[in-house]
Every structure is written in structure tokens, then in C-alpha cells.
UniProtKB/TrEMBL annotation:
Residues 4-116 form the PIN domain. PANTHER family: RIBONUCLEASE VAPC16, RIBONUCLEASE VAPC16-RELATED. It holds the Pfam family PIN. InterPro entries: PIN-like_dom_sf (IPR029060), PIN_dom (IPR002716), PIN_Sll0205 (IPR041705), TA_system_RNase (IPR052919). It comes from Thermus filiformis. It comes from the Bacteria. This is Twitching motility protein PilT. Gene3D superfamilies: 5'-nuclease. The lineage of its organism: Bacteria, Thermotogati, Deinococcota, Deinococci, Thermales.
Length: 124
């Protein structure tokens, strides 16, 4: 299975945070490939600049060192948001759902509302 990690999931993984469930850890460890979206990097950088969270130093390099792949945001991903029903209003989450659907990935998240988007989302 190929995964796309939601923002909180990658932060919890990097911090070895106990909020990341055992199930989520197993899925990440067993994934064929796991991706971190450029949208996630943007969201975290934005929130860090506002003082809403602490972003790990060297985030981009750390993501790579952990074996994750970066997923760019393409025009196809951006347009795929248009077709999504409005189960959730967060623009970053909607883009991640669109990316997962477009790329055949499963979005790994703890955000229960995203489960309404179906098979492309794994809530843990």
C-alpha cells in the first residue's frame, strides 16, 4: 500500500509522539511508499510562521532521511479538488484527499471527518 501522510501524522511520526496509534505506525512501516505532500510542508510552514506549532529544524531533509518521498502539488491535483463533495472545509485537507485520489494513494489521518471521502482515506 502507498500512503500519503496527513500533517499531524508526519509530525507525530517525527516526534515519536504517542498520539500516533500503533495501527498507524504499522501501516507506515509496512507501506511500499509513503509520501509527504508539498501542501503539508506549506501548511506546517505557515502555521509555524504564525507561532501555532513548532516545526522540526531541517524538516525537508528529515522527511527524506526517514525514507518518505515528497509529493509535489500539480495542476491535476488542484483541479481534482473541484470534484470533491464538501464533507470538510479545510483547504489543505481537501487538497490531500484530491492528491490521494489522483495518485492512487491512501491518505493516513486521524481526522475522522475525512473518512467521508471513502477508500482513499484511512483514519487511524
Amino acid at each position: 500500500m502507498n500512503l500519503l501522510l496527513d500533517s499531524h501524522v508526519i509530525l507525530w511520526w517525527l516526534a515519536d509522539d504517542p498520539r500516533l496509534s500503533r495501527k498507524a505506525r504499522r501501516l507506515i512501516e509496512r507501506a511500499d511508499e509513503a509520501y509527504v505532500s508539498a501542501a503539508t510542508t506549506w501548511e506546517l510552514a505557515l502555521k509555524a510562521s504564525l507561532g501555532k506549532l513548532e516545526m522540526p529544524e531541517g524538516f525537508i531533509e528529515t522527511v527524506e532521511e526517514e525514507g518518505f518521498l515528497h509529493l509535489p502539488v500539480t495542476p491535476v491535483h488542484a483541479m481534482a479538488v473541484k470534484a470533491l463533495p464538501w464533507h470538510h472545509r479545510d483547504p489543505f485537507d481537501r487538497l490531500l484527499v484530491a492528491q490521494a485520489a489522483a495518485e492512487g494513494l491512501r491518505l493516513l489521518t486521524a481526522e475522522r471527518l475525512l473518512a467521508h471521502y471513502g477508500d482513499h482515506v484511512v483514519v487511524v
